[in-house]
Amino acid sequence: MTRDTRTRLLEASAQLFREQGYAGTGLKQITAAGGAPWGSLYHFFPGGKEQLGVEAVAHSGSRYLRLFDLVFDRAEDDVVRSVRDFFQLSAEALHKSDWADGCPIATVALEVASTSEPLRHACVEVFASWRESIARRLAGAGIPEARAADLATYVLCAFEGAIVLSRTDRDTRPLRVTADIVAGTLGAELPG
Amino acid sequence: MTRDTRTRLLEASAQLFREQGYAGTGLKQITAAGGAPWGSLYHFFPGGKEQLGVEAVAHSGSRYLRLFDLVFDRAEDDVVRSVRDFFQLSAEALHKSDWADGCPIATVALEVASTSEPLRHACVEVFASWRESIARRLAGAGIPEARAADLATYVLCAFEGAIVLSRTDRDTRPLRVTADIVAGTLGAELPG
DNA sequence: GTCTATACGGTGATAGAC
DNA sequence: GTCTATCACCGTATAGAC
């Protein structure tokens, strides 16, 4: 059974927003990509493009949050390894998508930070949820909570920036180089 | 004497692109902000919006390159201090501009990475020039050249990501936290 | 040579057919 | 209740007035 129309619209939006940005993507293009008739958009999202954007950001955000947990669970006892895996997986995904699949939030976040409070706030919440997820794992590895929170922010910043550079350059090197150095930082902070 | 019309158009473009993105900024808005009549745009930029974008990216890029050099020169003997200053200055500029003045390249880079080769290439060149500038200073402080290049990439990634987070959150904390940790990384790499 | 007025396509949004 | 046909508007680009 194929996903319902509403979900297809949400996922088509998320994909197009991350490739082309929010302003650069038309609603017509979204309905076409989602295989949904034009009229259904305003049926499911009466708030128009902005509501669709807010929900698409939240949707992508929670999908990636689950992916974080998956990667962390896979190497439960080695948090540094998990962070490294995450950079590695992102590099592969980016390359395999012909450099289209970067961060699903960052492009929209930069576009709307000064132009739409509802959208900006949706991005704030996603970033916060990601940071919290990373911080919890670092704390679980024995790093004091306050320090774990700062390190999580640092990891996410380095990760986001590396995606910007790798996607622009069409080269996984920024992600690989940054992963190595960030892993070194985290390794030095672990107790024992 | 006021700058010439062409330059005003270029700088208005650069400012609007960084606040709202490339797709989200109209040519009408650019001419209005630059105090230039509508017709002058296609006189100075016959290649239309894309040419204007390419030149605006290059213009911002070289302005920031000069700023890099200025900050590095100010504390010539302490490259870690310079990097820290750069994060600090960016945090101040971001806050003082009411969270509008982030990176003049990153927003456009993410928007166009999959949609315009000329624009993407302009962004590639700017990032490369910035990395090279940082790498040269790190090498000058005694770090082997290959390692200096990797560290420069790392610094730029962390910096770009921190701007994304700080601008989205409207909080200088990501920039401050990341600056501290990156400074620590660099400090540990210096000889002596 | 510089720019005002206009063309044409695509945008987000809606009213009314089924 | 679901969606097709249409709207008014703004986007980029251009032709021709000065």
Automatic annotation (TrEMBL), chains A, B:
The keyword Ribosomal protein appears for this protein: no
SUPFAM superfamilies for the chain: Homeodomain-like, Tetracyclin repressor-like, C-terminal domain
InterPro entries per record: Homeodomain-like_sf, HTH_TetR, Tet_transcr_reg_TetR-rel_C_sf, YxaF_TetR_C
Superkingdom of this protein's organism: Bacteria
Record key words, sorted: DNA-binding, Transcription, Transcription regulation
Domain HTH tetR-type: 3-63
One protein family per Pfam: TetR_C_13_2
GO MF terms held by the record: DNA binding
Residues in the DNA-binding region annotation: 26-45
PANTHER family attached to this UniProt entry: HTH-TYPE TRANSCRIPTIONAL REGULATOR LMRA (PTHR47506:SF3), TRANSCRIPTIONAL REGULATORY PROTEIN (PTHR47506)
UniProt name for this protein: TetR/AcrR family transcriptional regulator
Organism, as annotated: Actinomadura rubrisoli
